[in-house]
Design goal:
The protein is mainly β and 45 residues long. The chain has one domain. Helix content is 0%, strand content 58%. It has no helices and five strands. The protein has strands at residues 4-7, 11-19, 23-27, 32-36, 42-44. It has a five-stranded antiparallel beta sheet, with no helix packed on it.
Length: 45
């Protein structure tokens, strides 16, 4: 958690929660999103 990430659609964000192997919750400042696996467009910085 608290890892900085970037997403092709939503931009820069911070991981605020993890569902093991299923999804991550990311705070992109303007919105929070649940990104499900596989994490094709989500990259750890």
């Amino acid at each position: 958690m608290n890892d900085q990430v970037t997403h092709d659609r939503y931009g820069l964000g911070v991981v605020i929660g993890v569902e093991d192997g299923v999804a991550v919750f990311v705070d992109f400042r303007s919105r929070q999103e649940r990104i499900t696996a596989p994490f094709k467009r989500l990259y750890k910085l």
